[in-house]
Amino acid sequence: MVRSLAQWTKTLSFPARISPHKSKEAAAVSPLITPTPSNQSLSVQSSDTMMNSNCASLTEVSHIYASEDPDSEKAIMSSVVYCIHHKDGCKWSDELRKLKGHLNTCKHDALPCTSKCGAQIPRVLMEDHLKYTCPQRRTRCEFCAKEFSGHGLESHAGHCGAEPLYCENKCGVKMPRRLLSQHKAGDCAKRLLPCRCCGKEFVADTLAAHHVKCGRMPVPCPNRCDATALAREELDAHLKDACAVSVHGCSFKDAGCRFKGARPAMERHLADAGQQHLQMMCGLVAKQQQQIASLKGALARLSLNCSGTLIWKVSDFGAKIAEAKGKEGMELVSPPFYTSQYGYRLQASLFPNGNGAGEDSHLSVYIKILPGEYDALLRWPFAHSVSFTLFDQCGTPEKACNIVESFIPDPTWKNFQRPSKEPDSLGFGFPKFVSHDTLRRRHFLRDDVLFIRVKVDPSKIVAV
Ligand SMILES: [Zn+2]
Ligand SMILES: [Zn+2]
Ligand SMILES: [Zn+2]
Ligand SMILES: [Zn+2]
Ligand SMILES: [Zn+2]
Ligand SMILES: [Zn+2]
Ligand SMILES: [Zn+2]
């Protein structure tokens, strides 16, 4: 027993403290590994721990050990020690006899690599190191199966020509590294290729679809003319303007010319048919004028006032009254309006400088009955009351003081009979509607504008 202990302690010394306490927990000895394996016995090392008064002297231990007393040996082997790598952080502590067993697994118990790579490897990791990480290990590349040292394999990794890799263009192909660049340049479906016509780059498998619509792709003229190297995007312009074979209608076809021909014939036709084309254009203009007139009529009907009430705005009144003073009988007439959609057609008239009894002193207003679309269906004589209102344009409508005059037509008057197709100028109304003096008061005239409302009593409009 003593000998075997002496053998394994060859590499050990016990320089650290031994607790004077006898209990296992307290009596911990902290042996240190010595770098002198030739040391045949436990040696005392001068360390700080030895200065600790709580430590038993190792000399004592040596002494006990040297005495080869079996009891003492037992006592020593039962003493509780820390792992020799306690200072390196190993927390192990137990009886001395178990230390050897612990060192087999202590991860702080480093040994030089047995393959002599020079690394210090914890005992428990040695196997892994020799197998997987030692630069001196012999190993094979899993792809090319060549044998390498561990160090050699590290340099080989990432460069092995046999390692299968996915194509970087994401075409889905996986192949050995050494073939990949050839694949990417040659037959990868996702490589970029320039269109031979327009030069733009396309992914290889979309190039055929691009060629079908590439504007620069040469196409033959569908008329089989002599033009060569026509790009697809130029074809329309060629057919329209340049193709010597394509047939076009004469540019005067809207005016009625029916000539059709290819470019040279068309040029001759345009030179020869000038007179003919002019006549066609005149006919077209006349036709369009008719259309315009009928559209105007339709527009007038649409914008016709059928409300029975006309608000007549008379602008530039100052100029008009001045003109009227120098021109006897000057009359202004309103736009015609209807008393209802199918009613009487009426028109107001205004003498700025007066008429009849109001001449030179008053504004005279009249209503005239014009021939209308529905006269045949209406009741005659015209019998609805009519009122004229001159608006006071003061700012507050509540304070406005309008001038209103109205009348009920006298059925015996000629003015209210059904008008003929050529109506006379006769109207009915008020020669002294408002005097020029009154006109200047209040706000009947504002910004040189006056407003007159002519209203036909709607309750009496139904005539048929
Ligand atoms: Zn340990
Ligand atoms: Zn190694
Ligand atoms: Zn390899
Ligand atoms: Zn690819
Ligand atoms: Zn192209
Ligand atoms: Zn052509
Ligand atoms: Zn023509």
From TrEMBL:
<dbReference type="InterPro" id="IPR001293">
    <property type="entry name" value="Znf_TRAF"/>
</dbReference>
<dbReference type="Pfam" id="PF02176">
    <property type="entry name" value="zf-TRAF"/>
</dbReference>
<dbReference type="GO" id="GO:0008270">
    <property type="term" value="F:zinc ion binding"/>
</dbReference>
<dbReference type="GO" id="GO:0043122">
    <property type="term" value="P:regulation of canonical NF-kappaB signal transduction"/>
</dbReference>
<feature type="zinc finger region" description="TRAF-type">
    <location>
        <begin position="102"/>
        <end position="154"/>
    </location>
</feature>
<keyword id="KW-0863">Zinc-finger</keyword>
<feature type="zinc finger region" description="TRAF-type">
    <location>
        <begin position="209"/>
        <end position="267"/>
    </location>
</feature>
<feature type="zinc finger region" description="TRAF-type">
    <location>
        <begin position="155"/>
        <end position="207"/>
    </location>
</feature>
<dbReference type="GO" id="GO:0042981">
    <property type="term" value="P:regulation of apoptotic process"/>
</dbReference>
<dbReference type="GO" id="GO:0005737">
    <property type="term" value="C:cytoplasm"/>
</dbReference>
<dbReference type="InterPro" id="IPR049342">
    <property type="entry name" value="TRAF1-6_MATH_dom"/>
</dbReference>
<feature type="domain" description="TRAF-type">
    <location>
        <begin position="102"/>
        <end position="154"/>
    </location>
</feature>
<protein>
    <recommendedName>
        <fullName>TNF receptor-associated factor 4</fullName>
    </recommendedName>
</protein>
<dbReference type="GO" id="GO:0007165">
    <property type="term" value="P:signal transduction"/>
</dbReference>
<dbReference type="Pfam" id="PF21355">
    <property type="entry name" value="TRAF-mep_MATH"/>
</dbReference>
<keyword id="KW-0479">Metal-binding</keyword>
<dbReference type="InterPro" id="IPR002083">
    <property type="entry name" value="MATH/TRAF_dom"/>
</dbReference>
<dbReference type="InterPro" id="IPR013083">
    <property type="entry name" value="Znf_RING/FYVE/PHD"/>
</dbReference>
<dbReference type="InterPro" id="IPR008974">
    <property type="entry name" value="TRAF-like"/>
</dbReference>
<dbReference type="InterPro" id="IPR012227">
    <property type="entry name" value="TNF_rcpt-assoc_TRAF_met"/>
</dbReference>
<dbReference type="GO" id="GO:0005164">
    <property type="term" value="F:tumor necrosis factor receptor binding"/>
</dbReference>
<keyword id="KW-0963">Cytoplasm</keyword>
<dbReference type="GO" id="GO:0031625">
    <property type="term" value="F:ubiquitin protein ligase binding"/>
</dbReference>
<feature type="domain" description="TRAF-type">
    <location>
        <begin position="209"/>
        <end position="267"/>
    </location>
</feature>
<keyword id="KW-0862">Zinc</keyword>
<keyword id="KW-0677">Repeat</keyword>
<feature type="domain" description="TRAF-type">
    <location>
        <begin position="155"/>
        <end position="207"/>
    </location>
</feature>
<feature type="domain" description="MATH">
    <location>
        <begin position="307"/>
        <end position="456"/>
    </location>
</feature>
